[in-house]
Amino acid sequence: VARRLARRYAWVYDPHCDDDVLTFVRHCMRATRWDQARACVELVFEHDTRAALASLGPPSLVVVGERESVFARGAADELHALIRGASFEVAPEVSHLHPLSRPEWLAGRIEAWVTAHEKRD
User: Fold this and answer.
1) CB 72 within 8 A of CB 94
2) In angstroms, rounded to a whole number, what is the distance separating the alpha carbons of residues 17 and 19?
3) d(CA 47, CA 44)
4) What is the spatial distance between Cα 23 and Cα 49, in angstroms, rounded to a whole number?
5) Which residues contact 88 (CB under 8 A, 6 or more apart)?
6) Which residues touch 26 (CB under 8 Å, ≥6 apart)?
7) Which one of 27, 80, 95, 113 has the minimum C-beta count within 10 Å?
8) Quick one: which of 98, 94, 53, 97 has its CA closest to 77?
9) How many Å apart are CA 104 and CA 112, to the nearest integer?
10) Would you give the distance in Å from CA 8 to the centre of its chain?
């Protein structure tokens, strides 16, 4: 099922999710109790830091997958808008699991971003 979802960019998957990523996600889903997952989601919605984001001092980078869900893409867009001077990157051809499905791309973008900010200081 996960492979079919990945081919269709469905849920959190994308075609770059290899067997190791799928195995990891399955493990996490099986090892996490429903009540724990629900409590974590509730905490996310209760912990609103939007008012404090404009006062962040260090440079910030917001990264989102190109094929991300509307909900998560909206949250990334909002973060980018609220963090003064934040950089924004869209990971191509990937969804929510982009740090796992395209780690080389992400590492390269972070390295380029850090290098660019080191030259400014």
Assistant:
1) no
2) 7
3) 5
4) 33
5) 61, 62, 63, 64, 76, 80
6) 2
7) 27
8) 53
9) 12
10) 19
Q: What is the DSSP letter of 1?
A: -
Task: Dump the DSSP string for 60-115.
Answer: -EEEEETT--HHHHHHHHHHHHHSTT-EEEEETT--TTHHHHSHHHHHHHHHHHHH
Return the DSSP state at 36.
H
- Tokens 């399955």 label which residue? 26
Alpha-carbon distance of 88 to 70, in angstroms, equals 17
Specify the pTM: 0.83
Angle at alpha carbon of residue 30, lines to 25 and 32, rounded to 5°: 95
Tallying the residues shown for the chain, one arrives at 121
d(CA 45, CA 119): 37
On the question of pLDDT at 20 being above 70, the answer is yes
List pLDDT tens digits, range 77-89. 999 999 999 999 9
pLDDT in tens, 41-57: 899 889 888 999 999 88
| The one-letter amino acid at 115 | T
